[in-house]
Amino acid sequence: MNIFIAKIENYTGILTTEESWHCCKVLRKKVGDKLFLIDGIGGMYEGNLELVSDKKCIVAITNTLPKQNKRNYYLHIAIAPTKQIDRIEWAIEKMVEIGIDEISFIQCKNSERTAIKTDRIKKIVESAIKQSLQAYIPKVNELILVKDLIKNANEDQKLIAHCFTANTKHIKTYEFKAKKNLILVGPEGDFTIEEVNLATENNFTGISLSSNRLRTETAGLFVCQAVALLS
User: Fold this and answer.
1) Per-residue pLDDT of the chain in tens (231 residues, 90 and over written 9)
2) Which residues contact 151 (CB under 8 A, 6 or more apart)?
3) Cα dihedral sign, 174-176-182-184
C-alpha cells in the first residue's frame, strides 16, 4: 500500500511537492489511480488521482477512513545527536515506527555534534510514518541548548536518563499512561553533573535504563520501546 501525505480541503487531497514528485516520477501513477492519504493529524483517506504532475498531484477523496486512535500517552524524547549522524537517523526512524510524538535535539557540554539538519530528519520521520501505517506525524524541533530546554519544559512528567547512580530508579518503575512525558537522553560522554543538577532543580527526576552502558542511540530507542511496553 502506497501512502501519501496531503493537505485535505473540501474532499480534495493536495499532495506536498515532494510527495507529488514521488507519485509522478518514481511510482508513475496515472489519473484515475487509487491512493491512500494521511493528513498528519490522524486522518486517513482514500481517493482517485485527478491531476498528476511532478509539482502538484490532486486526489478526489472517495472515502474517509476511521481516524487513527492516539496512544494513551504522549512521548517527547530530547536526545543529543551523535557524532556519526547515520546512527541517530537510524534510531529516529525506529523510534517513529515504535511510537513517539515529539523529538528534540539537545546540545550538551559533552556533545560531539553541534549541528543537525532537521529538514532531513523530518523526511526520515515522514517516511517511517508511512512505512508503519501511522497517521500522526511527530513534531521535530530544532537543536537547542540542553539548559534552555530544561528551564522551559512544561510536561507532566520530566525524566533525565544518566549514568550517575545516586537517586535514580529504573524506568520500569514509572507510570506513563495519560501523561505528557519528556525524557532526556544525553551524548556519548553522558550529561555532566551540573546538567543533571540543573534538571533536578527544574523538577526532572533521574532514571536508569540498564546496568549496561548504552550508546546514545541505543538509549533513545530503549526509552521509546520501554514506554510503549509499560503503557
Assistant:
1) 789 999 999 899 999 999 999 999 999 999 999 999 999 999 999 999 999 998 999 999 999 999 999 999 999 999 999 999 999 999 999 999 999 999 999 999 999 898 999 999 999 999 999 999 999 999 999 999 999 999 999 999 999 999 887 778 999 999 999 999 999 999 988 999 999 999 999 999 999 998 888 999 999 999 999 999 998
2) 198, 202
3) positive
Residues 7 and 39 in one domain: yes
Q: What crossing angle do the helices spanning 118-131 and 85-98 adopt, rounded to 10°?
A: 40
Considering Cα of 134, then 99, then 187, then 89, what sign does the dihedral take?
negative
Decide which of 42, 65, 88 is a domain's last residue. 65
What is the spatial distance between Cα 122 and Cα 119, in angstroms, rounded to a whole number? 5
Q: pTM here?
A: 0.93
What is the 8-class DSSP label of residue 34?
Answer: E
**196 close to 206: Cβ distance less than 8 angstroms:** yes
Q: Looking at the 3D structure of the chain, how many domains does it have?
A: 2
Range of the domain at 140: 74-230
Q: 85-98 and 216-230 are packed helices; what angle lies between their axes, rounded to 10 degrees?
A: 10
